[in-house]
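Task: complex structure prediction.
Instruction: return structure tokens for all chains below.
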Amino acid sequence: MMRNVKMLYDTQQKTLFETRNPEQEYLELINKEYNFQDAIEILDKIDWDFQDFRTQYLTHTFHSYPARFIPQIPLSFIKLFTKENETVLDPMCGCGTTLVEAFLNNRNSIGNDFNPLATLITKVKTTLINEDEFRYFNKKLAVMKRYLDLDYRRVDERINNLPNRKVSKIFNRVVISKLESIRETLLDVKEEGHNDLFDLGGVALSSTIWSLVENGNGIDVDDMFLKKVKSMQNDLNKMAKIIKTIPGVRVICGDARKLDVKNDSIDLIVTSPPYVNALDYYRAHMYNMLWLGMDFDLFRKHEIGGHSHFIINRFRLLSEYLGDVLRSMIEMNRVLRKDKLCIIVVGNSSLEYELIESHKFFAEMGKKIGFKPIKTIFRNIDKTRKYTSADIGKIDDEYILVMQKVDDTNISAEDDNFVSDVVREQMLGFREQIKKCQGTSIRSRKPTNERLLKNVDKISEAIETISKDTKIKR
Ligand SMILES: C[S@@+](CC[C@H](N)C(=O)[O-])C[C@H]1O[C@@H](n2cnc3c(N)ncnc32)[C@H](O)[C@@H]1O
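Output:
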């Protein structure tokens, strides 16, 4: 394992191997120094499919997260377009893939996400904890295990003490009792002033709950949790050995449409917004958040790309989504230094049998706010790790949009008129496209032509309500 870790991060790696493999060749390529133009050309030399590359190493293994990107995407841009001590931002950082790569490569980083679970995971993945702290924690957990309370008479009391009683419906009484013992131990740890361990334990507990929700009840939750903590400890220790100096990390739980970041302070943005109509993150994480006592109402209200509304006309979701992403892009332009790169990773979606090529909308909107699209890289997603959604089917490819900030935008992300004008233009172009050809995204049963033709009317209706649909919900 240590050897693998070295393989990734030792720049002197050439000497360690007799034969070169694609992973080594890739690392050699991105580890060289280039000027800006040459670095742009190097992008064409990378095989972005990264087939068979290791994507789960060190703290990337801490917690699964829907639609995260592979570490090689941020790593490539961080290496090619920033220097040590410069600052990388991911305004919708999810589980912190960009920040972990920045951390490992001595770049300062800022991560922002509205999902409190996302920011907790990101913080824990980029916080080293020393051996003494772990010794204290292991003792505490050993005591918990020894006296693990399986007194079911207390379960009802515990269920009543849970942040939300709904939780009890998906777990049996043994599991609830054990999870509560873990939670109480963590609260003790916090009380005793060990905040980083409390956060680490929260991520381990959340990861255990995630496995339970995915795989059904498993009464060995205490062992699952303890194993998780052990493997997290090992990964953090390995990370500590690799890192020469600890770069700055700032994690913000906030809205990407109103970033708490200074103007012109960022050297690179690598991010991936939610897909339109793909997945409600708050739903995916509801049980974890409930158990950790997190309030997800605010996130549910302001989540970009959520799809549990506009049921009658799904194209209204598209205008709302484009408005939200445009506001986030205006903020990205504001905080990015001039001439620096903004990388947005996104896949295609589907709405009412029509293909939504989000990256094309983003590139067009970017041009209105001081970004110059430089190139769009297409990549296949590893077939074995396809991310599936009930609404859009399998997502098997994604696009990496590379834009350069060429101008400061004078527009504010709160300018409702500007946002609705830009979205209207995009939606009018989309309607023209659909007038010429409908059913662009049919993956399964083809609906009737009559049904498909209705899409043009639906888009027209959605255009009528753009001003309302693109307003930020207060
Ligand atoms: C595709 S995921 C990002 C995954 C990330 N690249 C990773 O590797 O983990 C999109 C993220 O956008 C976040 N998000 C949704 N609405 C947001 C908002 N209004 N402000 C900030 N983040 C938001 C979601 O919580 C989710 O974590």
